[in-house]
Each structure stands twice: as structure tokens, then as C-alpha cells.
Amino acid sequence: MKKRTFLSISLGLALTACASSIAMAQTTLRIFTGGQQRPDVMRKIADDYEKRTPGVKIEVEVGGATSEQQQQYLNTVLASKDSALDVILIDVIRPAQWAAAQWAEPLDGFLGADKDKIMARYLPAYREANIVGGKVIALPYFADAQFLYYRKDLLEKHGVQPPKTWAELQAGAEKIMKAEGNANLSGFQTAGAPIEGTVCTYLVPMWGAGGSLTNAQGGLNLGSPEARRPFQLWADMKAANVTPPNLAEIPTDRIRQNFQAGNLVFAMNWGYVWQRTQNDADSQIKDKVGVVPLPGFTADKAATCIGGWQLAVSAFSKNKKAAFDFAMYLSSPEVAKAQAIAASHLPVFPEVYSDPDVLKANPWFAQALPVVQTARSRPVSPAYPRVSEVIRTNMNAFLAGSKSADAALADMTRDLGQVIR
Amino acid sequence: MTGPFMTAKLSSLERSERRLGIALLMPAFALLGGVVLYPIAALIRMSFSENKLTEPWMAKPWIGFENYWKALGDHRLWEASWHTALYIIVTVPGAVALGLGLALLANQPFKVKWPVRLGLLLPWALPLVFAGLIFRWFFEYQQGLVNNLLIWIGLSPVNWLTQEGPAFFAICVAIIWKTSSFAALVLLAGLQTIPKSLYEAAEVDGASKWNQFREITLPMLKPAIIVALIFRTITAIQTFDIPKAMTDGGPGNATETLAMYIHKTTIDSLDFGYGSTLAVLMFIVSAILTSIYLRHTRRDPSAGRH
To answer: Which residue has the higher pLDDT, A200 or B230?
Structure first.
């Protein structure tokens, strides 16, 4: 009896040793992505990569739904120089901060002599966003911009054209809401909760009015009349009940949920919404959705926030080469096409927009390319988290009605003045 | 080793026992040193330096009291402190009062005791952030239970979480609900030490229930109430999870507490130097309040009555 126990234990040990030596030959890479950036699609792409790259196993770690929730977690992981993550999906606003904090491994060494050739394939905005101080900090995964989603069926029913100006949008929304008489139907929603997306809720109308956060000398430019326009715009919409009274508690994906449930006429949101409205089982509005560029104060002058997600190789990864190879694969036209079809993620390569398969899944991509090409960047700064916090907190307080436009603007000027000089 | 305790009178056996005692205490001291003293020392040191992870090329220069001068003029620190003080003023007595009610209920001679006791324990066992999320759903504008109730009885819905007053109220309700069970547990233990004979004697003398409560229960329970107040105050100074989950400090910074501001400065903005300064200030306030309470309890609570 005793002998047999001994035998089975030693056999077990031998097997374990065997299994672990197999595991040794295998590289396990861990990629971090946000809950809103379609981890399911990432998983499928990773499965393909595992098949074509024997010896590499990919684990997908899913973080919070919003950009700043993800960054909060990543801050703790990376500030402690944790090697658990190899490839990390980061928001387009982060490369400058990541370069400054030395969290992203510069990829120039891996790209080698082909660096310029490889980077030249991307849309210029993404090439520029990912090169900080001459170094390639990350590779673009997918592009993004904010668009105006609208209920095609409701607009047609009530004879409303897709709006080109905010005034047309407000008038159209009021007309439809009045005629429908549905208490649950809201006219327009944009992010109002204290989250990253709310920064764009402020910047988009300011840019549309011809303003800009900083002047030519890089100083703060909040004294201009354009800096007041967003407050006026959202106050008007609130007064007309076009935006719901609880706008200040609405984050990005809640807008998508409200829209998808059929409770919203117009939504200002990112590219991913299209695929969800067309394919989700719970979508009430399949085939009833239209997408156009965001309106402006005048029809010829609209603006939108540039978004999109980048692949950074962690400076603390123990498998940087393998991580880079995987990032290169994820940042290829082939994967861009797969993502465009499976998730309506906007491609970072201009030629993919005219791919027939992509256009079949996303007919609106034909007019999306010029929007992405002209979309504007949020301020680039290593201290961006602070810039973002000041703007979104004040915008949130204003939308909630707890701060007047004057107070919010004054507080923004005071607090941003400490970061942007 | 020499000292007042090491006298020649000690036998060798006593001396070896003493050595063993010290040796047995060492791991606990080492642990305390590692997880309490060292972090506090490191925190204080860091509070005198500039340490921004967003600007690693600036290194970590020693800047003396600069962070502290900055804190004095930091309006947001004062606002956050004021909010924290309000939470303490409202939720500490609130939780102890509700806890007293719950404890009295649980102390009733029910035949089956476990349902009441389980009801007492559950909120206490629930993680704070869960409680915050649950109450956030309760108070949400569109899907929230509270607004559904308001509409049902014919009132108009309230923007609970995006208006200063209602948001503060909603957070206080959540904190009081969550923390009253701990107060109740402490008070229940106190209630059970009160001898039954006191009530029997009062009964014989014809004292009403209310007078029994005022003249017997409350005075006898005073030590337990003070313990509950102390523990509740210490946790209330650190209020973080529930407002974080319910409003994230919003609208604007209207419900932000001291602990949340420290978290935002340190983890979101990666300003470890200034964040440490704020944490040291909070530590000082917390230490002062605790020592006031401790001084108060060191006096025998029954001494005054005799």
C-alpha cells in the first residue's frame, strides 16, 4: 500500500514536471483591454493568432468600461512596475503621459529600419498621436470619432432631415418628441457623468464655434467667447427638455443602451455603437439607425473629438519581443478589417474604409473617413489626467445644475491655469 | 540588558521566561513595524518631497514644507474636509441611533433569534462598495427604486445623485444603513450585560417602559455607546467607498471626501508628493479625534454616577 502511494506520488510529480516543461516552451502574453472595446472580438482575434503562432498563448484581461476607470487600475499596476501585463490597450489621449512616465516600451528598436515605412501606412492623426518625442510609443489598434446617431424611422415619419446644425437638431428633436408623446423618449444625449467622454461634451461645441483650449502660444484660451458656447448650447437643450434631466449621471455606454432600447432620437457617440445596434439580440432599433457627422453651429463648421485605442508594450513586460510581434499583428490591415466587420471599429488604415466587405457591414463608413481625418485631438500633455479631471468635473457640475456657466468657467480657468501655462 | 525590571532577584528560570516572552513578541513587533510604522514613516518622508509619476525626469527633490503651504491654500482640500465633517456629523449619530433601535429589537425575547441576528449581520458583512452600488441603483433617476416609488405615490422624480443636497442625503442614507449594523452589534453585546434583575426591580416599583429605558438601559449602555461612537467616527473620517461608488464625488466635487481627494491626487493624477501631504494631514486629524475620544473613555464611565 505504502509503496503504491509512493509510486503514484512520484508519477504525479513526473507528470507535473513534464507539463511544466511544456509550459516553459510556451510564451503566455497577457493583453489588457477595456470592457467597452469589445473584448469578445479581441478574444477571437487572439485565438487566430494562437493558431498561427505555435508556442504563444494569449490571455485577455478585461478592465473597466470607461477610459479613466481603466487608467486608475493601470496606474496602480504600472506605478508598482508589475510585469503581469504585456500588451495594453490605451486611449488615444494617453501616449504622451505613458511616454513621460516611461511605462510604454519605445518600439523603435523592434520596428528597425522599416519604422518610417510601417508608420506611414496609418492615418496621419494616429501616426502623430503615437510618436512622442520622436519615439514610437504605441501602435494604433482602431480609430474612432464621435458621430451623430439618429433614428432613421422616427426622422422619416415626422419629416425631419438629419441635422447639420445644433439648432436643427434641437428643433427636430422637439418636433419628434412632441408628436410621439412618449414620456420615455429623450431627444438627445451626450456623456454628462464625470468621465473622460464628458471632456468631449465640452470641447466639441467649443471647437465647432471656432474656439480652442489653448492659443497659438500654448497658453490657456478660456477667456474667449467661444469658450462659453458649449455652456449656452447644453443649457438651451436642457431648457427645451431635449436632453434628459439626469444627463449628469449618463456615461458613454448608457447612451448606447438608451438608444438601443428605442428611448432616444439623437445620440452623440463613438463608432462601436453601430454594430451593437444592428446585431445585439436586445436591440429594438435594428435597421432603424442612421449615422452622420456631428452638427456644428453652422452647417459648414462642425467638429468632433478624435478617439481610438492604441497598443502599448509594457516597459515591465518579460516578453517584450513576443508582445511587440502580437501588437504588430493586431495593428495590421487584416485585423483592422476583421474588427471593422465584427465590431464596427473604425480602421486606422485609409484603404480599409473602401473595402467592399467592410462597407457591406458598415455602409456609413464611406462618409466616416473624412470625419476621422478632420477629428481633433484633446490637449496633448503628460499631465492630461489632471486636465481631463478639471474639464469633466466642471462640465458635470454645470450639466447637473450645481454650478453656473460663469462659476464652471472660472473654476476651469483657475485649475487648468496650474497645468497649462 | 539592564533596567528597572532586570533585578538580580530574578531566578534563572524567570529570566529565561522573560527572554522567551520577548522572543515571542518580536514577530508581532516586526509585523507592526512593517505594515504600520514603516509606511507611516515613508508617507511622512514623501510628503516633504515632490514626487510626480507623470514627470519622472524631475526626480524626487526634497521641497520642505512647500506641499503643506500649498495645502493651506487649497480650496478643494477645505471643501473636501467640510464634506467629510458633514458626513461625520450626520452619519455617526445616525448610525448609532439606528443601531440602538436594531439592537433593542434584536434583544427582544424572540423565540427564533436567528432571522433578526442575520438581518443585523448581513449589511455589516457586505463590502462597502457593494452597498454603494446597490444604493446608487436605488437612487438612480430613471431605473431607480426610490423614484419609482415617488412616481407611484404621485410625486415627480428627483435627481438624487446629480444635485448637491439630494446626493448628500442619498449617500448619508447608504452610509447609515451600512454602518448601523456594526453599531447594533456593539450595542447588543452591551445590552446583554445589563442584569435582568434591574428591570424586575423597576417593574415592581411601577416604572414605565420609557422610564426603564431612560434610567436603566441608557446609563448602563453608555460605555458601549461610546465604543460604537469611537469606531464609527474613525471609519467616518475615512469615508471613501460609498460616495465613490454612488457619485464619484459629483456633481462637480460636491460630495467629495478627504479620502477621495487623496485617492484622486495620488492614483489618478499620480502626484505622490502632494497626495502624501494630504494623507499626513488626514492622519493628524484622525489621530487628534481618536485621542480625544480615548481620553474620554479612560475615565471610568460609571464613576460619575456614584
So the answer is: A200
Q: How far apart are CA A386 and CA B97, in angstroms?
A: 41
Indicate the SS3 state at residue A130. Answer: helix
Read off the pLDDT of each residue in A175-187 and give the average, rounded to a whole number. Answer: 95
Confidence (pLDDT) at B11: 84
Spatial neighbors of B40 by CB under 8 A, at least 6 apart, are B283
- Compute the nearest-CA separation of A172 from chain B (Å): 24
Reported as a single tens digit per residue, the pLDDT across B177-195 is 999 999 999 999 999 999 9
Q: What is the pLDDT of residue B117?
A: 81
Q: Which domain holds residue B266?
A: 81-299
Yes or no, beta carbons of A402 and B270 under 8 Å apart: no
Residue B172 pLDDT: 97
Residue spans of chain B under pLDDT 70: 1-8, 297-306
Shortest Cα–Cα distance, B235 to chain A (Å): 24
In a domain, B121, yes or no: yes
Domains (ranges, CATH) in chain A?
25-144+307-374 (3.40.190.10), 147-304+383-416 (3.40.190.10)
Q: Closest partner residue to B264 among A249, A389, A408, by Cβ?
A: A389
- The per-residue pLDDT for A250 is 94
Contact A32, A46 (CB under 8 A): no
Residues of B within 8 A of A389 (CB-CB) are 264, 268-269
CB spacing of A194 vs B264 below 8 angstroms: no
Residue found by looking up cell 436594531 in the block? B102
Beta strands in A116-251 (DSSP E): 131-132, 135-136, 139-145, 147-151, 186-189
CATH (domain of B216): 1.10.3720.10
Q: Retrieve residue A166's grid coordinates.
A: 445644433
